Each structure stands twice: as C-alpha cells, then as structure tokens.
Hints:
The complex is a heterodimer.
Chain A lengths: L8 H47 L1 H9 L3 H12 L4 E7 L5 E5 L7 E10 L2 E13 L2 H50 L21 H70 L6 H31 L8 E3 L1 H19 L2 E8 L6 E4 L1 H18 L2 E11 L10 E9 L33 H12 L2 E4 L9 E9 L2 E2 L2
Parallel strand pairs in A: 6-8
Antiparallel strand pairs in A: 1-2, 1-4, 3-4, 5-7, 7-12, 8-9, 9-11, 10-11
Chain B lengths: L1 H15 L8 E6 L15 H12 L3 E6 L2 H10 L4 E5 L3 H4 L2 E3 L4 E10 L16 E5 L6 H4 L5 E5 L2 H9 L5 E5 H11 L7 E18 L5 H18 L1 H9 L7
Parallel strand pairs in B: 1-2, 1-3, 6-7, 6-8
Antiparallel strand pairs in B: 3-9, 4-9, 5-8, 5-9
Amino acid sequence: MTFSVSKDRLGLRLVILSLLVGSVLSVFSTGIQLLTSFERQKQDTTNSLDEIEAALTETLERALWTFDFAQVDIILDGIATNEAVTYLQLVSPTGHSWTRGQTRQSPLKREYSLNHSDPDMPEQLVGTLTVELSLQSVIDRVWAQFWVTLLTNLAKAYLAALALLVIVHRLITRHLRAIGQHIETSNETAAGPHLRLQRPARTHPDDLDRIVQAITRFEDRVRDTMRSLRSEIGERIKSEKEAREALSVRASFISTMSHEVRTPLNSIMGFLHLISVDAALPDKQRRYAEMATKAAQGLHNQLSNILEMSRLDSKAVDISTRPTDIRRLAGQWRDNTEAVVHLLKKDIEVRLDIDPTLDAQYIMDGARVTQIVTNLTDNATKFTAQGAIRISVRALPDDCDGTTERKVIAISVADTGPGIDPAHRHRIFDRFAQIETGMDRTHDGAGLGLAICQELADLMGATLNVAEDEKDGYATEFLLTLSCNARLDT
Amino acid sequence: MKSFFACVCIALCAMVTPASAAPRTLTVVADDWPPFSGHGLPDGGLSLDVIAQVLRRAGYQVETSVVPWARIMDGARSGEFDIVGSLFKDPDIASYMTYGDPFYTTQVQLVQRMGGSHAFTTVEALRPYSIAVGDGFVYEDSFDRADYLDKVVVTTTLQAVQMVAFGRVDLTLDSVDVVRHAIETEAPDLADAVEFAPGVLAEQGIHMAVRSDLDGSAEIVADFNAALAEMRADGTLAALVDRHVPGKAGG
C-alpha cells in the first residue's frame, strides 16, 4: 500500500457520514428501546401492586386476624424490600397501625381492604393497607440502561465505521487513487504500460474492471490519434516548405522576367515616342507610333502590377511612414489625373476637394497612399468617357484611445462613369477580377489594380470600400479610410 | 420418706464423689412463656430461676437459656440440651424425658370477653365455640386430644387474648399466670376487655424434665427433687415464686 488509510479522504468522508448516520440511528434506536423498556418496567412496577395483593394480602389478613404482629412486621418488611415501594401504611380497626417509608403523595397508590372470611361468621375488616409506588427507581435504571446502551451502540457504530473505512479503502479508494496516478503520469505519445490494479483477477468484471478497460481503450485511441496527427503535421510542414520554395521561385522568376521585359519595353516606348513626335514623318506613321506607345504603356502597367503583386506575396513590401503634407500630396494626385485625362484626350473634369480642417501634416506612407489613389484615379479615368472625377480628402473624428492621438482621414475617388453592378461588387477586389468578360470587353487590364490597392490598404491598417452609386451625380466612389499614427502640427 | 431417701442418696453421692471433682454443668433451656420463662424476665423467669437454684443447691453448675419451643424439642432429642423447664406433664415428652417434681402449680382457665356467659364444665361442652390455642402448647390431655373442637392456632398467648377481646374467637385458654402477665406487661387495656370464665380446665404443675438418655439422668432428677423439697421446706421456694409471681407464693 503506497498511502495510508488516514490519507484516504474519500474513505474518511464516507466514515464520517456513516458515523453521523450511525450515531443518529443509535440514539434513535436507543431511545426506542429505552422507551419500550420504561413502559415495560412501569407496567412491571404497576403489576407489583397486583402481586402484593395476590401474594401477601391473605397472609397479612390472617396475621392481623390472629394479632400475629410479628408476622405483620415480617410481611410489611417484605413488601418494603420492593424498591418501587416508597410508603406503606397499615391501619387495623383494632387501633393498631404500622408504617414503612415516607409518603410522597405518589399517583401510583393502591389501597387494599383486608377482610377476614370465615364460613361461620360475616366478612370482617381487619385492616387497610396503603401502598405507594415510585417510578424513580425505574427512571434511574432506564437512565443507566440508556447510557450503557448508547455507549455500546456508539462503540459498535465506531467499530463498524472503522471496519468500513478499511474495507472501502481496500476495495475501492486505493484503486481509484491508483487510477488517478496512472492517468496523471501517462504519456499520450509514448506507449507506456497499461493500467493494472493490484487485486486478484475476477471471473465476472465489476465496475473497477470496466473503468480500467475503458481507460485502456481510451489510451489506445489517444495514442493512435496522436500518431496520426504527428504524421499529418509532418506532411503539412513538408508541403508548406515546398509551397514556400515554389512561391519564392515564382516571385524570383516574375521579378526577373518583369525586369528583363520592362527594360527593353522602356526602350521601345522611348523610341515610339520619338517617332510619334517626329514632325518629319507622315501622320499615318506617327499615329501608328502613338498606338504602339499606348499598347506598350499598357503592357508596362500590367508588368508593374504583376511585379507589385509578386512583391506583396513574398512580403517584400514595407510600409514606411513619415510626416507628409497631405494637401501637397492631394495636389499631385489631381495633377497626375489631369495628365492622364489629357493623355487620353477625354472630356473629363478633375476636381479636388480639400477639407479646410485638415492638419498640415500626418504620419503616413505617402508613396503607398499615392499608389492606391493613382490606381483608383487610373480606374476612374479608364471607365469614364466624359464627365468628372472628384478627389476629396477630409478629416474624420479623432480615434483616440487615451494613450495615443490618432487622426483618421478619408480619401475618396468618385467618377461619373458607368458604375459597378451590385452583383459583381463583392469581387472587384479579388485578383484578376474582370467585370467585363468575353471578346466584347471594352477595357484592357489584368484585374490586379484593385487587388493591389486592397492589400496595400490592409498593410497600412486602412479600409477600402466601394461607396453607394448615384451619389451627388457620381456613379462610383472608392473610399479609403486611413488611420494615422500621430499628428504633427506645424 | 422421699426426703429422707433423697438425703441418703445425696450423702452417698457425696461420699463416693471425689472432693476434688468439678461440679457437673447442666444446660437448662425453656421457651419464651412468661412469666415462667422468657427473655427480659429476672433470671430467665420463674421456671429457669427455680430450676437453676434447685440444681445449684443439688451441687450442679447450671447454664440457662431461652430458646424457641421447636428447637427445644429437637435439642432435647439430639442431646444438645440436658434439661427442659416450664413443662406441663405430657405423655409424649415423658417418653424420652424424665420429669422432676413440680415446683409450681398453675390453673388453666378459659378466657372470655368481659361479660361473657361461658363457664367450663367439660371439654365436650366447648364444641360450639371457637377457641384460640397456642401452636404446640400443652394445656390438658383431654383438651389437647379433642380434635373435634374449633381450635384457632396462634403463636402467642397475647394473640389469643386479643382475638378474644375483639371477638374473633369465642374463647382461649391458658395458665392464668401467663394470661395475667401478658395483659399486665403487653396490653394493659385488655384488662377490661377479657375475663376468666368460671371453672378450671386443669391444674397443671410446672416441671422440669431431664433428657432420659443423659448419663445420670435419674440421679439428676433425684437430686433435683431432693433439693426442691428442701427449698420448699425452708421457704426458699416460696420466696422465689413470690419474686416472679407476686401473691402466688402459696401455689
């Protein structure tokens, strides 16, 4: 036994409860026994009055009749030896009287009329005997019996409880503790020894045997599951490593290819531009050169987007914040947009709304914000045949957490183009998403611009949404909500 | 003649008995029967006093005691006691004990309630009446044998007298000396409640008897009788009787 019975808390609780119940039952049963005993002894005491009458009154009557006072004394002394008798009084009509004890006016009292009967003469009273009884001796005996019985019953209850403690410990709690220790020390991965209880094998398994069997089966299942999980984790780690390597190879390939393509493309674009502006060439050739320049520009943009997406996938894009003059930046956005509009020769008015409450500077990555806004204005220019494009910058209520001052600014780009079908709006930020499909597409592009904007916004902790259509006459509005880390007032 | 014979015997005994021999000690017992014998009576009562004095005069040492009647009868047969006093003459007792001469005479009379009309004529005439008698008492031979009488057995004379006084029996009987002594010493209020009925049932001598199987029993009886005669003659007996039963010295 590796632990003592005294540390068997479960067994002790069982014993204490058993003792409490046993003690209560002992007191109750003792009370019942003694009540019965008291009633019986009380009846016996009362019966002694009848016994006195049956056994002694005739003798006493004869002694009185014959004036055998010595015999009267003997009889009265004999009656007085009964411990229940507290008082005796015998009065004879001849003027003689005898008393024994002191009267207590007990309710248990009986008077006997002692009459002499003789066939030759009328019945004659020879004395009156008064006997008083007390139950005090009975009560004293019952109390003594009560304590003896109670102590005996309690002793039996304590001995039984002690035996119960040992039995419960031997049969149950030591095995429960062994089960607990086994579970506590078992290893879900290593195949340790199965649980075995230190007790003889049984022909018919009991609850402990079933618990042991259940634990053993559970351990086997856990170990099988763990082996399966470890195998799966290993495979996944291997797959992830291979995926990372493949991604790296792909990014490297794309980067290399983009660079290798863009360098000659830039040369082509440069020469095409020279051709298109060469006044010595006929108009037809210059127009062809301009068309070639546009195609090359589109190819250049697609390559730039693919390269950017590749950098984002390989986590190569960093956000670098610095104090930035948002008003000057917004002016550049407007100028760039007007340049594109002019280049495309579209009848589009470009507007810029600046919130007068804007601070002079914000801590932000101006280049990445400009990249997003430029993508949005390029989209707006692309899908707007004529009308207007509005760029607005406004300050939103402070987002202060009490420790750091944060400024939130909203940058929106709205246009009067055809708008976006609500059925397609949920996927416009997906990679390679094209709302127009098929051979009748009117606009080119790989569908990477808005996806890049979304991922850049995520990197900066900003949100990018499509606003409601037909607002203030603008069909589409992209809203960039940017939370700046700090504000620098100048 | 008897006195002379006794004197001769005593003289012969004195001659043959060595002067240095210690006197023989006799144990004399009697039952509680006042005034003849009983606890608390002077020198054990009339009977024990007289017997002791007579035997001492006869040259014996005497030890007296009062014991219950049943034990006396048993002890006399078994040899525990030598001499029994306070006896009426009784044939049964005479079969194993040797009586000495009576040293007192008492009358046995009926006792009735005061004003009663009884009078003793014959034992047969007592048939209609209930009579209290002492357990084992000897009154008179014909009365003792009269089984046809309604005898109510009691333990003491006083009980019998009280039963008469309270009308529980018609009569009792006993030695007038015993009855008087009982009333005077134990129940004086009965003196006005009972009386002796006319007529004497018997006149009984008070005897002592020596156990017949005792060595020298006849000699002891003879010595007793001789010494008694001397004491009667010299008035010593009368003085003793008067001490115990005043006014009856002539009995």
